[in-house]
Amino acid sequence: MKSPNKEKKKGANSKTLTTATGIPYADNQNSLSAGPRGPLLLQDFHLFEKMAHFNRERTPERVVHAKGAGAHGTLTVTKNITRYTKAKIFSEVGKKTEMFARFSTVAGERGSADTVRDVRGYALKFYTEEGNWDLVGNNTPVFFVRDPMKFMDFIHTQKRLPQNNLRSEIMWWDFWSLVPESLHQVTILFSDRGIPKGFRHMNGYGSHTYSFINADNERFWVKFHFKTMQGIENFMQEEADKIAGKDPDWATRDLFEAIERGEYPRWRLEIQIMPETETEKFRWNPFDLTKVWPHKDYPVIEVGVMELNRNPSNYFAEVEQAAFEPSNIVSGISFSPDKMLQARVFSYADTHRYRLGVNYALLPINRPRTAKANNYQRDGFMRFDDNGGDSPNYEPNSFGGPKEDPAFKEPPLKISGDADRYNQPVVDDDYVQPGNLFRLMPPDQQSRLIQNLVNSLKKVPRLIQERMVSHFGKADPAYGEGVAKGLGL
After folding, report:
1. Which of 30, 55, 132, 138 is flagged as catalytic?
2. Among this protein's residues, is 217 annotated catalytic?
3. Residue 7 lies in a domain
4. Whole domain around residue 60: which residue ranges?
């Protein structure tokens, strides 16, 4: 990979980006959506070709979140939230629902270390009486990008160079410096929170904005937070590096052995609620995945407690074959115009069909527990049940096959704006939350954040360093000055 400083001007823009069939891209940064806030349109074949190819780039491990650990447990409701949702999982205080959790690192392969500086995946599957509800998030409340068109390119920067199969910090920082909406997540990643002390001592977040629908068919926007009851603990860089050399599976071992000892880890489930009518007057786009909702505007509401209390009996069958997907929602819980969420609704299921086969939902770890799946899906590789027997495989039919139920219809989602590719330009607001986060840190944490950034940025060309320092400075002058001084700029 050539340094940007050494790129020749000749031919720099001579090639037009096209699809696999040679159709030119008019815009490779913004998805096609109905209005600036979405939702996305299925006709955006550029996005779906890009995403579908990306989902099939690696085999057989997951493209992202390849290294992970999992455990079984329960979610117990402690507070009544039925005014916001009719989901039966939350129907009464004291109700317990079986669930399965998988934690992971994002960028590394299956053999990578558990103590690297990386975002941690936080995937949960709840076996409700209405079917499976999956909540697929991270240990951070935000993400690096807010439009899915950029996601595949971002993940490529976290993987390996095509020529030498080595990871490259130049790729990371070149992308981040050109996509400054990532600054909020970058600030978290290089702070003390960037290397959690195992999976038990980190929070989890749904990250996206979802929707609740109550018995009166009213919609509320909701964000999910899982707060560790073990207390937040993190590794410092030097300690994490030593552990990576001695025990690269440290977090996996820590979770497994704690449960074996009967020290069951617990998290408190909290939510933030925004009435549907408040989206237009909120000062930020509430569906922007690079932003949080300030707690002073939307205080957290306690919901319940998640406890992990049973280890898998077979890692491959239960952890490796677990398939989490945001498209698994139940009545009373639904989606939002969040563009990243809209794309993930397609992407995750598509990846599972490739990685595990079209019948992945029939695997024991993925099957619903109390609700029977009734559909007309038949055949395909690894169909290991009775394949529907002699029942009809089409609908409508006259022979008692399953039918749709209008009772589960959601209220209409209001959409405004014309279908177009809307650029969401970086504005001053994109620097407010990273700056607020920096100013919340005590001086010692600020110093470690700056040093972690300097240690990584010193390996990249000066042009990229200067771009990043400019972004840090817009978030907070002391933030930019600290990094600039460390880099000798």
Report:
1. 138
2. no
3. no
4. 51-144+196-388
